Amino acid sequence: MSELIGSLVILVGAFFLFSAGVGLLRMPDVFTRIQAGTKASTLGNILVLAGLGIYHPDWSFKLLIIAYFVLMTNPLSSHALSRAAHFARTPMAASTLVDALREEDEGAGKGSP
Questions:
Q1: What CA–CA distance (Å, rounded) separates 70 from 79?
Q2: How distant is the alpha carbon of residue 83 from its chain centre?
Q3: Which residues lie closer than 8 Å to 45 by C-beta, 6 or more apart?
Q4: What distance in Å separates the CA atoms of residue 108 and residue 62, rounded to the nearest whole number?
Q5: DSSP class of residue 98?
Q6: What is the mean pLDDT of residues 67-88?
Q7: What is the pLDDT of residues 10-25, one digit of tens each?
Q8: Distance in angstroms (rounded) separating the CA atoms of residues 99 and 92
């Protein structure tokens, strides 16, 4: 029974990893691609690792350590990539209405000598 549950959790994780790939292809600009890829791949990786933990209980501690690193590095790396793309003036999609980071930078520039 645990093999079936583990396999189903791995399958759901694989679906989220697939949707991350589709999001990378379908999103209109760099910033939304980074968001789609990061959120879906983080959840997909965690589900695959959880499914492996159910399927192979003796690997649980190692898989927990890997999950911790995935949860720490995926958001940090996507944030760094987004900031670098914004700093390089990568254009946003035409449908983007608000650029909060640009507004923050302009607000900081007005008050400084």
A1: 14
A2: 15
A3: 13, 17, 67, 70, 74
A4: 45
A5: -
A6: 92
A7: 999 999 999 999 999 9
A8: 9
